[in-house]
Amino acid sequence: MNLIDLNKIAVAMAAPGKGILAADESSGTIKKRFDSIGAASTEDNRRDYREMLFRTDEAMRNSISGVILFDETIRQNAKDGTPLVQLIKDAGSIPGIKVDKGAKGLAGAPGEKITEGLDGLRERLNEYYELGARFAKWRAVIDIDGSEIPSGYCIATNVHALARYAALCQEANIVPIVEPEVIMDGDHDIDRCLDVTEFTLKSLFDELYAQDVALEGTVLKPNMVVSGKKCPTQAGVSEVAEKTVRCFRAAVPAALPSIVFLSGGQSDEEATAHLNAMNAEYADKMPWALSFSYGRALQAAPLKAWGGKPENVAAAQAAFAHRAKMNGLATTGEWSDGLENVA
User: Fold this and answer.
1) Residues catalogued as catalytic
2) b or e along 148-160 (b: 16 or more beta carbons within 10 Å of the residue's beta carbon)?
3) Which of 1.10.10.10, 3.20.20.70, 3.30.360.10, 3.30.870.10 is the CATH number of 3-342?
4) Residues of the chain with pLDDT under 50
5) Residue 252: DSSP 8-state
6) Where in the chain are the domains?
7) Fewer beta carbons under 10 A from the terminal one: N or C of the chain?
């Protein structure tokens, strides 16, 4: 492990004005996205769509620090034969890779999940490094349902797996993104989300410490502290920002270089507004950089504009560049909804 190099990458992944494009949709997820626009989820179409994003020069050079890829994508070449990984590098961005095998039912805990994929991970990480990946991602799923879910058992098993994955990443000179996602589905209020998120994060960092993971070469990808989608009272932007920052100040060590949020089902503008409020109101109270690692919140607009048709590439790239720019501004607290209205 070269901690100096890992730290440089972890810092660069949340450089001011930039964040991460999560383009690591599984075959099943990308098919659902393509179904929504009436496009066939063929290997060529998936390649063309992602190539279109990676060739959006304005977005990639100015607003995107890294790209999380799926196993298929990291091995693909563009139409002209250039490896997609090379397109990302040429734009000054860092290639990354999703390495978990998805969340499955947790034995003995009905309604809860454990993320699988540790078997053979050391060998896969070494291969991904050779393919150009310099960071990786592993997502754990923490549901909230009533007062019994999540259980301590579910949180403990998931953070243990996250730490094992992170240690293997650093052994392979790959920066681990640890993603303990507290799901925003459900009718719980924001304070219940706060309690579960804080407990999960404290458990995670205890486990990372126990497994000798160097925080200086690690990136956290958490949920924001928000109300459940079905909660009758939805917290406003300022409350989300205040409680998310409060939660992190209580649970996240200062040694961690950067935090990149998942959007977690928020609308495009909600995800941007929440991130902006944290950076605008609390920048002087946070030891880490706060940025984004969005999938749908960056891709929904360009996907719709593209519609699977070559003649729509320019419009789709413009939509992607706009969303990337808006979120880039949010990393420095300079976004406003007026910029959306002008666009």
Assistant:
1) 179, 221
2) ebbeeebbebbbb
3) 3.20.20.70
4) none
5) S
6) 3-342
7) C
